[in-house]
Amino acid sequence: MEFLKEIKLIQGGMGVYVSNWRLAKAVAMEKPGITAGTVSGTGLDWVYVRLLQLGDPGGHVRRALKAFDDMFETGIGKKILDRYFIDGGKAPGSQFKNPPQQIVRALDGTDILPLPSQPEEPVTLALDNDNIELLIATGFAEVWLAKEGHSGNIFINFLKKVELPLVYTMYGAMLADVDGVIIGAGNPDGLPAICSQLVNHETVRIDIQVLYREPGEDFYVPFDPKQVADGKFTHKPLHRPAILAIASLQGLVQTLADSQSKPPDGFIIEHHTAGGHNAGPLGPMKLDTLGQPIYSELDEPDMHAIQQIGLPFWLAGGYGSSEKIRKALNYGATGVQVGSVFALAEESGMKPAYRTAILNEIKKGTDDAALVRTTLFSPTGFPFKVAQLDGTLADDSVYQARSRLCDIGLLQQRGLSKPDENGKRRLFHRCSAAPVESFVKKRGLPHNTESRRCLCNGLLSTVGLGQVKNQVEEPAIVTLGNHLDSIRRLSHQGQYPYWVHDVVQDLLGE
Q1: For the chain, what are the domain ranges?
Q2: Engineered SS bond to 146: which of 29, 154, 282, 459, CB 3.0-4.6 Å?
Q3: Which of 70, 313, 28 is nearest to 178 (CA)?
Q4: Is residue 274 within 8 Å of residue 317, measured between CB atoms?
Q5: Residue 184 confidence (pLDDT)
Q6: CB 144 within 8 A of CB 67
Q7: Range 250-275 burial, b when 16+ CB lie within 10 A, else e
Q8: Rounded Cα distance, 18 and 460, in Å
Q9: Does domain 2-278+298-508 have CATH number 3.20.20.70?
Q10: If you write DSSP's letter for every residue of 237-290 in order, what string do you get?
């Protein structure tokens, strides 16, 4: 992993398709070897299905899926096109056809599980083959498009909280020769070892968190690449990408470095001012007058301790300037990860209307604290940064007017009902942003639903892929970090658009 030591700037993997292949490719090509472009791996199956139903503008999805079929002779890409592509695009007021939700079931295809006779014996669950094929194909396609025509570094970013699709999408990215995998929003211990196994197409175990299980009871989904597409992916070993774990404090960094399976190849030390999901503050949760979590000195990373661990690391959250990069290097970091300033670049996947709305707020003089707030909107329970834009889910009136539902389910929890008189339990999927009565029926507590927003639908709307219901598009939810100085500087206080070239030149110069 010697190439990691040369990377000074990693572009953040933001939201759903904000960090798309166009943005990542532009970053990687700007200063090859010194920069790394990152695609977001979250929800790629939903993104690609909806792009196809919009008629695949530019033909890029069809081109990538054709490359997938040509390379592996599986026909999976054609199957996806036959199922979802609409020539000329769907009618503007019509709904998108959804791909199948990622629902795990017992091996007999039901959601019924007996009480374990031997608690220490793992319980095997299964995911539908259509889900697996779609995840692998779209993971490949996004990375293939980002890497096409250059030799720069392309990474892919995942949320550990979205645990079920991660390994399949990562495998698809590896088939496209991805250079690095970044994993945040949870403890990624075990994933570096899984990645190494997938290099040789070995069977891996995807551990699944299931609530209300019996003591000692474990659940997992096996993934054997040789059982997918008649083993056509497995003819030669793959390139092993670097694994970078996102952590906020030295404790998790040390724990992962001492992993019993395999440590990551490096770390991104993300400050709680970074956009998207953040680690919660240490100690009991306390909120300020705006309902934001209060962080303290306990939540500041010990840079000396992290440097002593000896693995390369990058700093994130407020490092979007050349001065801050020099500061990071003085701490012993290899470089920095920067997100928000790229999210507002013209190559970003963010819908132009939302980029313009943010720049207009900056032009009006809205300060950072008023424009971006740390909320408890996420169904994950993690703090989540939200840009305060009219007409989006940041607006309580928009939130209250929206009917609660969970029709995508990437952030669902899995749990077990209480045993019936026959000792049988039902495996259920629930989300705290779903209808309250549904969540409570599945052993949830009502207070855990308060203010919870549907991030799945909201983030898809942020990139222009929102579902249409009754002729109205789902409201968006836009995330940014707390530090917007670089956006102000490059946009001349919100007055002008800017591009990736401008960002990289501003940060790294000549």
Answers
A1: 2-278+298-508
A2: 154
A3: 28
A4: yes
A5: 86
A6: yes
A7: bebbeebbebeebbbbbbbbbbbbbb
A8: 9
A9: yes
A10: PPP--EEEEEESSHHHHHHHHT-SS---SEEEEE-TTSSSB-PPPSSS--B-TT
